[in-house]
Amino acid sequence: SKLTNLGHLEMTWRSRVHFHPLLVRILHKSRLRYYGKPEKKMDMPYQAYFEVADGSGMMSMVLWNSLCPEWYHSMNVGTVLLLAKYTIKTSYPFKTHPTPGDSQMKRFATIEISLNVRDPPTEISIIPEEMVKPEWGLPEVKYRFITRSELDDLPHNYSCDVIGLVTFVGRAERARKREHSEDFWLYRWAHAIDGTSDQPFILELFATSQPDVFERIHPMTYLVCTQMRVIQCLTENPSRTVYLTTSNESQIFITGWHKGQPYTKDAKVKNFIQWTKSQSEADQIKKTVIGGYYPFPRPPDTFVKY
């Protein structure tokens, strides 16, 4: 069928009601959001954002309501989609934006693609990777992997991806989303090493929409975290500690989930795998810890310094 592209959509969307089908690749995926309220009777008040791209650039795509439980777990970073009968809306101004791996990619930020179960019912098809043709001009997924030796020099809030061998994972903890709120964030602390520094990555991992992965982070697993944000504790403490925290678009992968993921082609991931082959598993296991209370950032030694 006749296809359109994202750049053409941005130029013509106001003058059209019906749009030609789109062929796009998913570059980023947000966590699933539940927006139900007791007073509003909605069957499935779910929403998820994706950043999708073709040869012309990148745009947000929103999956609504009952399409979320049906499609969310099938739509992964790297998946190619054929979309028909979608709608175009003005972008929601307050949503978060991931940092693209390709800094040259054009971003269409004024509009977003909306996928609904009716008015009109969107038609979604997943194209298997082996059927994707080079002439379609779809961009590859690109990452911003860093090593532990590079971390200390990065600015606060910098967005990056990391891979490491887990040496510590803490128990799951809860933090209130807002003061006096009944809603909680679930998170856990983890340490991962990559052989480039004596120090581990300190990772604050909030539960994303991947409960099966979040619950199974164990020492000695290969952990990949994407779209992490650098937090520089800018305190007067000279031994300031840098750590990484998840963002709305973070994805977490552990041993058993890596096969077929686009990051397996990344040079820094390959270097890490080479380093792990040179390590003695027995020696590393002796250094691993699981569970327990992990106060972080660490309080000062004396009350005076507080």
What do you see in this structure?
Helices cover 12% and strands 35% of the residues. With 306 residues, the chain is mostly beta strands. The protein folds into two domains: 131 residues, Nucleic acid-binding proteins (OB fold (Dihydrolipoamide Acetyltransferase, E2P), Beta Barrel), CATH 2.40.50; 158 residues, OB fold (Dihydrolipoamide Acetyltransferase, E2P), CATH 2.40.50. Strands 1, 2, 3, 4, 5, 6, 7 and 8 form an eight-stranded mixed beta sheet that branches. The chain has a five-stranded mixed barrel with strand order 9-11-12-14-13. The protein starts with 5 loop residues before the first helix and ends in a 16-residue tail after the last strand. The model has no long low-confidence stretch (mean pLDDT 92).
Number of strands: 15
CATH-level-2 architecture of the largest domain = Beta Barrel
Number of domains: 2
Label the overall shape.
globular
Give the SSE string.
HEEEEHEEEEHEEEEHEEHHE
> What is the percentage of strand-forming residues?
25-35%
Oligomer: single chain
Number of helices: 6
Work out the radius of gyration.
21 Å
Report mean pLDDT, rounded to a whole number.
92
Tell me the span between the first and last alpha carbons. 67 Å
- CATH superfamily descriptor of the largest domain: Nucleic acid-binding proteins
Ranges with pLDDT <50 over ≥5 residues? none
InterPro entries: NA-bd_OB-fold (IPR012340), RADX (IPR040893)
Protein name: RADX protein
Organism: Pomatorhinus ruficollis (streak-breasted scimitar babbler)
GO molecular function: single-stranded DNA binding
